[in-house]
Amino acid sequence: MKKKILIVGGTGFIGSELAKKCLTLNWEVTSISTSNPIKKKKINKVRYIICDISKKKNLYLKIKYNFNYVVNLGGYVDHKNKLKTYNSHYLGCKNLAEFFLDKKITSFVQMGSSTEYGKLKSPHFEEMKTDHEKLKSVYAKSKLLATNYLIKLNKDKNFPCTILRLYLAYGPTQDYNRFIPITIKACLKNEKFDCSDGKQSRDFLYIDDLIKIIIRVLKNKNAIGQIINVGSGTKYNLKKVIKKIINISKGGIANHGKIKLRKDEIIEFYPSISKAKKILNWKPKINFEKGLKRTINYYKSL
């Protein structure tokens, strides 16, 4: 029998790439999102369902199929809208879990966030505890509430969930609303662009490596009930990242210091990925330079 997977947020960057991979495994793929994919991102053989997961009654009406796996990548992307952020990232996750609680699914993967660690010192370990009340952003609070809810559901009712705390994913097909594609776009146009002084350090993970760990989690019983950091495990200085993109793109001039750091800006923010290595025997395969070159070549071809 074919495995059946439901990808919530299946029209987004990560969701689309996951759908493509699942089809190569000969799985049946269903996507839930609040709107249809744009024409160039629509994938043949994927069943698309339009639904707002924060609306419980609507969700229960829309899901009419059985699934082996559920991956929740859903959530409102404009975090300035606090109500929609809370509803989609927390209530939406809660609604999904409640729906699938008695459906005998094999695995439910929740895409968590590195922001759940708040201001805790890097490198982050999964054992570190944070209180959602102390987190500043509604997005971080909503993600941590979802994590806590799922872990409790696993302990109380054996719900087969895993939380992947993602750092910064990048790669071909990502929209121009993230640090790396924004920088690449300016460099390919040989533009001057404003940025911070670049003293921050962040962790970047290439999309193919992210998709591989999601698939691995779905198949691994040892991951159930676990919170697992997902990143490269390496910190990259943003000033050096910008310089690397300029060199590979052969264009662009960075106006460092034009964008001021927020007062609460965290300078170093990166994970330990020792748990992913131990439980899943996983580590990233695509080094940063190779991933950047692939990504830049993609945008260059558009």
Structure description:
The protein is an alpha/beta fold. It is built from 9 helices and 14 strands. Strands 3-2-1-4-5-6-11 form a 7-stranded parallel beta sheet, sandwiched between helices. Strand 5, helix 4 and strand 6 form a beta-alpha-beta unit. The longest helix is centred in the middle third of the chain and has 20 residues.
What are the key terms here?
globular, three-stranded mixed β-sheet, 302 residues, Rossmann fold, alpha/beta, UDP-galactose 4-epimerase, domain 1, 2 domains, single chain
Beta-strand proportion: 15-25%
Q: How would you describe the shape?
A: globular
Q: What is the count of DSSP helices, taking H or I runs of 4+ residues?
A: 9
Radius of gyration: 19 Å
Average the pLDDT over all residues and give the rounded result: 96
Low-confidence stretches: none
Question: Strand count, sense and closure of the main sheet?
Answer: 7 strands, parallel
Tally of DSSP β-strands: 14
End-to-end separation in angstroms reads 39 Å
Q: In summary, what is this structure?
A:
This protein has helices at 13-24, 56-62, 82-100, 138-157, 179-188, 207-219, 238-249, 274-280, 288-301, and strands at 4-8, 28-33, 46-50, 69-72, 107-113, 161-166, 168-170, 192-195, 201-202, 204-206, 227-230, 236-237, 253-256, 268-269. It is an alpha/beta fold and 302 residues long. The longest helix is centred in the middle third of the chain and has 20 residues, at 138-157.
